[in-house]
Amino acid sequence: MKPSKALEIIQQGESQNVEFKESRSKLSKDVFDSVCAFLNGFGGHLFLGVCDDGTIYGIEPKAKDKILNEFVTLSNNSQKLNPTFYFSPEVLEIEGKTVIYIPIPKSKQVHRSKGKYFVRNSDGDFDITNHSSQIENLYLKKNQNHTENTTYPFLTISDFRSDLIERSRKLAKHNSPKNRWFEMDDLEVMRSAKLLVKNPQTGEEHFTLASVMLLGKDFTIHSIISHHKTDAILRRENTMRYDDRDYIDTNLIESFERLMEFARKHLPDKFHLEGVQRISIRDKIFREIFSNLLIHREFFHSYPAKFVIEKDRIFTENFNIPHTEGKINPKSFIPFSKNPKIASFFKEIGFADELGSGVRNLFKYCKIYFGQNPELIEDEIFRFNLKFPQVSDQVSDQVSDQVEDKRLKKVLKFCKKPRSRDEIQNHLEMKHRGYFRENILNPLLEKGFLRMTIPDKPRSSKQKYFTPSV
After folding, report:
1. Domain limits, the chain
2. Is the model's pLDDT at 391 over the cut of 90?
3. Which of 30, 28, 94 has the alpha carbon at shortest distance from 57?
4. What is the pTM of this model?
């Protein structure tokens, strides 16, 4: 590393991936705690000869070779660092002082320093030796074989739903006329999708966890992943519990469809044109949210996946194996598939697009639908957050050019209590039903300023309309 670049990093101070050790005349005692934490995390920059506050004291000239030799020797001593690791320290001259810089990569293994497990957080190195769940998560992170590839030798085709395989054929054919699954039997479809794989040592074929989660019978799924569920919750009025809930513990295909129905039931669909074609911008957004929620999760972990609608926001949570940390910037985001076989299957049946396009679509359509960007946070718990804009007179004024503004405010105020079409029309003293629907009611529904009490049956004789509280 160039001294100028090293100085730039030092000036930013200690952080998640930067650590300073004074080590002026000898190696600091806790240096391998930091080495271990960086190896177990995302790697980092270790500087010897720099104080905690960023002051560059430098290594004493006579101690430089001794410190270098001691570091290299101890990094190959399994009693100090286990497993051992090879490093390439660099000696830099910064502001006339000697500094030893040690770049530490992310390791594929789990390491211990003097028998203890360390991980890195923003406050420094954290000893997790007595926290078994965190150690388990650490090993899951380091597992380079996707857990979706776990095989089950005793599963047979009878453990899977033939009707679901047939539906997948139809979905794939509709999504791409070139798809060949219609020409294959059930086993051939699963081989084609890499859900039935051959053991190269024995020549035997085994079904994978991905096949179970996508196409397995519910009993099969829960015999392997007993904690599997996705929770869809509406919490607007009853904030201590919920107003509506769908406890989803079935295969990923039907889980996706039930989540979409839950969103359609409780969130409005706004009018939007792309070119000359009207699209469902709500479905665009939640297709990306739910495919991400179901695909990029660690199924062996018991943390439940969640989709929650609250009075002022929506959010999702699911456990995953992170490959970065912090908020996702769509301009610099590098996509990484957590379960590539499941992701490929979702893409084949039209439930997902190319890897990476989902994040860009979320930012594009959330800006149109909600007037703001979502917040995506990559960590062990992956989070999607988005606040609702408030329905107010100011918002009403923004659409006053599209509907009759005086009547708009009158309708919104009147419909704080659910009202029928006749009641609203009479309140406005409007006689022409067609004009009322086309110019008042439909625009308000499309913009989300009015909602139906029976959204699944828009032409029900018992239908009423109300102004949402957000």
Report:
1. 3-142, 148-224, 230-387, 393-466
2. no
3. 94
4. 0.60
